[in-house]
Amino acid sequence: MGGHRGDNGGGQHHNDGHLIIPDNTTQIETLEYYQCTGITKVTFNTDGALKSIGEWTFSANNLAGAVDIPASVTSIGWGAFPYTNITQLAVPSAASAIGTGAVRPGAAFVSLGTSGVLFAATDRYLPAPDSAVHAFCHALPGMWHHMGVILSA
Prior knowledge:
4-stranded antiparallel β-sheet; elongated; 3-stranded mixed β-sheet; mainly beta
């Protein structure tokens, strides 16, 4: 199983290579599943508890195919997924904002794929219920973001 420490996360690793991160897991530690070559698929909990994936967590294992990071995740450590066979990595907009530089009021990004997303950072909660723009917590403390989404870009 390589470098799996098993001291957090507590994922259930099945003989078929499927790792299931259970509900109530709030963070996956740095190097938690590093070099666990028996892992070919990962499924994250859906209860909204997972907030953080540490550095090099899934690096150098045999993860393959698509991996969907839960929307509750606001922090993904450096090198969390390299040296794998992942073909698609879906990262929540709140976490993507840090990587794109949308970290100060007025900074924004557009993401086009199967959906279209406009994400704009702000320093205060400014809901606009009469529009298609929503207000959410940013991944950074004390920040908010506005987001508009169209499902077929």
